[in-house]
Amino acid sequence: MAKHLRKAPSVLPEFKAGKLLFGKSNSDHMISVDWERATDWGNPSLIPFEDLQLHPFSSALHYGIQCFEGLKAYRNNKEEIRMFRPWCNMLRLKRSSLRLTLPDFDGHELIKLIEELLKVEERWIPPTTEFSLYVRPLHFATDNALGVHSPDRSKLLVMTGPVGPYYPTGFKPISLYCATQTIRSAPKGTGAYKIGGYC
Hints:
By secondary structure, this protein is an alpha+beta fold. It is built from 3 helices and 9 strands. It is globular.
């Protein structure tokens, strides 16, 4: 993986209940790799976490051609870094990408890249099992022209950030309702994929 100039380390958030909120903190770096139909996948890069620049005609914005995943990295009692079934997340990201006519990719290689990113961002992984480092892969089209068509260009990013409980109530049981009259994944729909809008 090509490495760009590393960012100066940021101040870590407090790894405390009520202080570390879900999705509010990001680590210092992310993985970026571009795809073009004519040349296939390029070399992945480790870059500083930064704002994206998108063309106003980007098909990801107009037609929602983007998908994502979410998994976590933890420290166990031996201070070892662990992820929970990352290959399942890669398989779903591959399926979501193909459903949107985004290009396929090597899921095993992406897991290796994530492992390298975790080494770089190790200090962001909370020292307690109550918290974790959230890993967010994102794959989206980068065509800069209007019109519905299969993408000729795309970008795959992997970002991370330390997180606390998903719900503001913390690690407390929540009430769930199971509906059997309606289903989220209609036949030939996109409910079984993690794409923009969950439509």
